[in-house]
UniProtKB/TrEMBL annotation:
GO molecular function terms noted in the UniProt entry: FAD binding; oxidoreductase activity
Keyword Oxidoreductase on entry: yes
FAD-binding PCMH-type domain ranges (all copies): 25-208
Record keyword Oxidoreductase present: yes
Name of the protein: FAD-binding PCMH-type domain-containing protein
Protein family: Belongs to the oxygen-dependent FAD-linked oxidoreductase family.
Length: 494
């Protein structure tokens, strides 16, 4: 971002074309270890320690803040750690005496698309990302892990039964609710690329069943205030009923792609009636409402409806940045709070709303002080919405990719969330989908208590910051690994 040394792929020219035929190294490491097993990672870390070479860890490269690269680092690439899946109907985590129920064990390189497909037909599914190209064991899990099914089944961190990882000193460990609980806490919310290199994860399996699928979309050239009001007025009920999915809007129209694992079709139709009634009342022959309220037979079908696939479609060359806010339940509980929310949403020209684990009750083992407590911000547990503001641009357009243009855009996207931050004091943000200028990162991503524990674990584990990434726990602002980020002075280090 700072030097404009890029390798720009165009979104608008032929897919994947490199602009000007020139590729700069930018933040991309010069050397990668294409790790295949634990030993590869251990050798890489030992070599890096001996020669004082900073490390970066990359899986799929989805990180919005570029934290899976770093100039002049030695990268450990985990994408090819792909042992066969292991399904265990009675998974007993190492060191535990009792079964934790059905679990699936997969490697560090596992993506959700492959995982969902392989689990289809087994009678089970897992809680995973809605964009299926995201890695299941890397930054998604380390950052928290949000899913369409999070409202009722929890975050990725709530579904993890066991994590195996190589620590910065080369030790290979197994962390779960019975052993290495500090690491289990840190690797479930503390952020990727910080506490160790994860090689294997076991996640809870859920019995497959049918789901309610609701899709509504239409153009609304006269604005979406009424829709915002309906969403705000119904937010508590919908969250408690376990709806998950994506509500997206812009000044020109709205789209709703939602799923429910527990309501009947009739209950679902009643549940979404206020929104449907409004959209039908403003629809016309020239501006019809597209609507589909139906059941789909399985989890695989949920992620593979034509609309789901259209929502997650990616194209080379399109870049995105976003800012995030976890909006607490209290904001929806008074008329004044609801009005403030509608005003803010309207002022921002709308955004995207995703679910939070509102209808999911944490088991006693995972409450604060318990062996399965996770380090994500406690704000997740009280939020009804994960609210996201996003801007995209074409990497192939020089006017949009100069250092100045990029910095302006990243600042604008961060500032766009300020009105929402102002009416949600003390709430948090989802670190995996937040912006680089997020104010009060410690409070937003972890909360001070979680952060204090995380920092101590990090300092004990990796005093020399062999593993480190931008704004990650224990990061050092002066570390040359972070030199490509703009305006470092504006970013809080703590
Ligand atoms: C198109 C798109 C869709 C998304 N959809 C969702 C979604 O539905 N739900 C959601 O919650 N989030 C979503 N995200 C955000 C996503 O969770 C984060 O970008 C996440 O960090 C990606 O993790 P990764 O391992 O795939 O990517 P990477 O960029 O490779 O890694 C991300 C971070 O994890 C670290 N890391 C990777 N592998 C390991 C490992 N084996 N051990 C230790 N550290 C590791 C890296 O160093 C880096 O810091 C989406 C992002 C994109 C770009």
């Amino acid at each position: 971002m700072v030097t404009n040394e890029q390798c720009t792929l165009s979104a608008t020219l032929e897919q994947g074309v490199i602009i000007n035929g020139t590729c700069h190294q930018g933040t991309v490491p010069d050397y990668y270890i294409d790790a295949r097993d634990v030993k590869d990672i251990q050798l890489g870390l030992t070599f890096a320690r001996q020669h004082k070479i900073p490390i970066s860890v990359k899986n799929t490269g989805h990180d919005y803040k570029g934290r899976s690269t770093g100039p002049d680092t030695l990268a450990i690439w985990t994408k090819n750690i792909m042992p066969d899946l292991k399904i265990d109907k009675d998974f007993v985590p190492q060191g535990c005496e009792q079964s934790a129920g059905p679990g699936v064990t997969y490697g560090a390189g596992q993506t959700f698309d492959d995982l969902y497909t392989k689990l289809d037909g087994t009678g089970y599914f897992i809680v995973g990302g809605s964009c299926t190209t995201v890695g299941a064991a890397g930054g998604w899990l380390a950052g928290g892990g949000n899913s369409i099914l999070t409202p009722i089944l929890g975050l990725g961190v709530d579904n993890a039964l066991q994590i195996k990882a190589v620590l910065p000193n080369g030790t290979y460990i197994t962390a779960n609710r019975c052993q290495n609980q500090d690491l289990f806490f840190a690797m479930r919310g503390g952020g990727g690329g910080t506490f160790g290199v994860v090689t294997e994860v076991t996640s809870k399996l859920h019995e497959d069943h049918q789901f309610i699928h609701v899709f509504m979309t239409m153009n609304l050239p006269d604005g979406v205030r009424e829709v915002s009001e309906i969403l705000v007025d119904n937010a508590e009920r919908w969250a408690d009923e376990g709806w998950g999915g994506i509500y997206g809007g812009s000044p020109g129209g709205v789209s709703f792609l939602t799923f429910n694992p527990s309501l009947s079709l009739e209950e679902a139709e009643n549940s979404v009636k206020p929104l449907r009634d409004y959209l039908e009342s403003v629809a016309s022959d020239s501006n019809p409402l597209t609507i589909n309220i139906t059941t789909v037979p399985s989890h695989w079908a949920v992620v593979n409806t034509p609309v789901s696939l259209a929502f997650i479609a990616l194209e080379a060359g399109t870049s995105r940045t976003r800012s995030s806010r976890l909006v607490p339940r209290e904001n929806f509980q008074t008329a004044e709070g609801r009005k403030q929310l509608v005003d803010v949403i309207e002022g921002m020209n709308w955004a995207t709303i995703l679910g939070t684990p509102t209808a999911f009750a944490l088991p006693e083992s995972d409450l604060p002080g318990g062996p399965g407590y996770a380090s994500v911000t406690p704000a997740w547990r009280n939020a009804l919405w994960h609210f996201i503001y996003t801007e995209s641009w074409d990497q192939g357009n020089p006017a949009e990719t100069s250092p100045e243009a990029l910095e302006q855009r990243f600042r604008r996207v961060s500032q766009a969330m300020d009105p929402m931050r102002a009416i949600t004091p003390g709430a948090g943000a989802y670190q995996a989908e937040s912006d680089i200028y997020e104010p009060d990162m410690i409070d937003s991503f972890w909360g001070q208590d979680n952060y204090d524990r995380l920092l101590k674990i990090k300092q004990d584990l990796d005093p020399d910051n062999l593993l480190s990434c931008f704004t990650c726990v224990g990061w050092d602002k002066a570390d040359p690994r972070h030199r490509c980020y703009p305006e470092m002075s504006a970013i809080r280090q703590d």
